[in-house]
Structures are given as C-alpha cells and as structure tokens.
Fold:
Amino acid sequence: MKFKLPAGFQPGRPGLGKVLGALENEIMEIIWNKGGEVCVREVHEVLAGRRGIAYTTVMTIMGRLSDKKLLQKRKTGNAFYFQPSVTREEFTEKVVGNVLDALLEDFAEATLAHLASRVSAQDQDKIARLEKLLAAAKDGGNNAAR
Structure:
C-alpha cells in the first residue's frame, strides 16, 4: 500500500521521530510492537501508563496516521481498529531512500563522500556489502546485492 511520507525532516530528533511527530512516532512504535490489529483503547492504555493523555487525542493522532496511509482503519460498532499499512522496516527504508535521494539530487559529491567516510576500515562487513551493492549497480542490478 502506498503511504505518504511526512514533509519535514528533523535531524535532531531520535529514531523515526525525525520524520514523524513525537506522539505519532510513539503510537506507531506501540502498534508495530503489538503486531496485528489494535483498538484505540489498547494504545491509549499504554500511553496513559507513561503520561497523562486523553483518549480523544490518541484517537485523533491515529486517525491522522490513517489519513497518511501509515495505518489502516476499520470501525466495528463504536470502536475503531487499526493495523499498520507498512512494517517499521518498510517505512524506514522509504524514509532513508527519500532523504538520500533529495541529498544526492542537490549534493551528490558531498553526500557520497560523507557516506564513504562513515564506513571505517574496521567495518569490513559493511564494506563488503557496499561493494556488492556497487557491483550490482554497475551491472544494472543483475548481481545479487546480498
């Protein structure tokens, strides 16, 4: 399923909070960790155990995450049930891809130089994976990248 990536990127925030609001990130983490379908009440109970938060606030944020296509929503009676549209890993890959694509578009040399400098000589596994990926890119994607 297609989902909308958030427009802003906040490099100072931790984890996926770099692209999601703090509460959106916390709610998505709760849902991903629970796995499967959850109702608003279940997420609210987890959040309420950490801090004071209104049920309606949780419901509103989960509705917004559904509007962004990060959650699928279904109503049964008076209760709303949600499940992730994407895994944490799929979302992370899409975010990283979009950020890097934007950097490469405007700052290709600096981006590549920085990425290369971040892989130290002690990271032989990372270097080997990077070499495989580069070989696959040179070959037009015909080599196995993993």
Residues 27 and 62 are 8 Å apart (CA to CA).
